[in-house]
Design goal:
Pseudouridine synthase, 11-stranded mixed β-sheet, 3 helices
Length: about 220
């Protein structure tokens, strides 16, 4: 993973598609494990900086779908984790995604407002135009970046951050993301879809200064 930003409080990486966010119990690798290994190897090269018995603290602040790529924040302390998670919960974090869809939306820009809930097995998001039991309102704004018929690339600004929200909302209007076979998109690569977390704008957990973190699009796009 490419390191996008690092200081004593947080680490931002460009997570590739196919890599889970959190360690958990899954057998496949995760961004948390990879990033922790990076810190351990660096500390081993300078043993005076860290006692051998101490493992660095590192936790993912938010989640990116395994099949998606882009900016992922990891906190280096419980204080930083609490501060950053609070920013996400209060929806003060600016999030910008890039997605390629097939086909393109009928309008060059728009706002999608729906209601979303998890499927009974918890593996998918169910989107409806009207409120249903256990559903929650979701909203995103989009604009087309490329001409229709040429990549159909969208810039997306989600106002909320629900499970599979972007994927499910775009599929609901008939524009599934390329590679997202779960929601009706055409196959692209194994464990990869064309959804990329392009930019995050947060407040630094210690200084409070605005911090803009950006991740370039994957070269395979």
């Amino acid at each position: 993973m490419d390191i996008l930003f690092e200081d004593n409080d947080l680490l931002a990486v460009n997570k590739p598609a196919g890599l889970s966010t959190e360690s958990g119990r899954a057998p496949h690798p995760s961004a948390e494990k990879e990033a922790l290994q990076y810190l351990l190897e660096r500390e081993q090269a300078a043993p005076a900086r860290l006692p051998a018995h101490k493992t660095p603290y590192l936790r993912a602040v938010h989640r990116l779908d395994r099949a998606a790529s882009g900016v992922l924040l990891l906190a280096k302390s419980k204080t930083a984790l609490s501060n950053l998670m609070n920013q996400f919960e209060r929806q003060t974090v600016e999030k910008v995604y890039i997605a390629e869809v097939e086909p393109a939306p009928g309008e060059a820009s728009g706002i999608l407002r729906h209601f979303l809930k998890r499927s009974p097995d918890g593996k998918s998001a169910l989107v409806s135009d009207l409120e249903t039991p256990d559903s929650r309102p979701v909203e995103l704004r989009y604009r087309v970046l490329e001409n229709p018929g040429k990549n159909n690339r969208l810039e997306i600004f989600p106002a909320s951050g629900r499970f599979h929200q972007i994927r499910a909302q775009l599929a609901h209007i008939g524009c599934p993301i390329t590679g997202d076979v779960r929601y009706g998109g055409p196959f692209w690569r194994e464990h990869a879809i064309k959804l990329h977390a392009r930019r995050l704008v947060i407040r630094h957990p210690k200084s409070g200064a605005q911090l803009v973190i950006e991740a370039p699009l994957p070269p395979e796009w």
